[in-house]
Amino acid sequence: MKKIQILGTGCAKCQKLAAVADEAARSLGAPYELQKVTEIREIMSFGVSQTPALVVDGKVKLTGKVPSLDEAKQLIG
Fold first, then answer.
1. Which of 11, 25, 54, 71 has its CA 20 to 30 A from that of 77?
2. At what angle do helices 12-28 and 69-76 cross, to 10 degrees?
3. Is there a contact between 16 and 53 (Cβ–Cβ < 8 Å)?
4. Which of 2, 4, 28, 6 has the alpha carbon at shortest distance from 17?
5. CA 74 to CA 24: how far, in whole Å?
6. How far, in Å, CA of 27 to CA of 42, rounded?
7. Rounded to whole angstroms, how far apart are CA atoms 31 and 39?
């Protein structure tokens, strides 16, 4: 099962990234868990300086922007 984490404090971009990641993961058809990480200390533990950020299976894949659906599929896939 893929573990997808959205790092961010809940801003509009963070919410959009969560929605795009969820849609991308659903379209790929593999089982996944989507978690929103909003605690600043926990976000910083990933070494991320910009939010929103996308983390897949513990690896930071994207920071500071919201990808297109196709980009998200590639990052998650």
1. 11
2. 60
3. no
4. 6
5. 9
6. 28
7. 25
Beta-bridge partner residues of 5: 35, 55
Q: What is the CATH number of domain 2-76?
A: 3.40.30.10
Would you state the pLDDT for residue 30?
Answer: 87
Give the C-alpha separation, 74 to 45, whole Å: 24
Write out the H or E segment, with its range, that includes residue 55.
Answer: strand 53-56
pLDDT at 52: 97
Question: How many whole angstroms separate alpha carbon 60 and alpha carbon 8?
Answer: 13
Instruction: For residue range 20-59, list pLDDT tens digits in order.
Output: 999 999 999 989 999 999 999 999 999 998 999 999 999 9
Instruction: Provide the whole-model pTM.
Output: 0.95
Q: Which residue ranges make up each domain of the chain?
A: 2-76
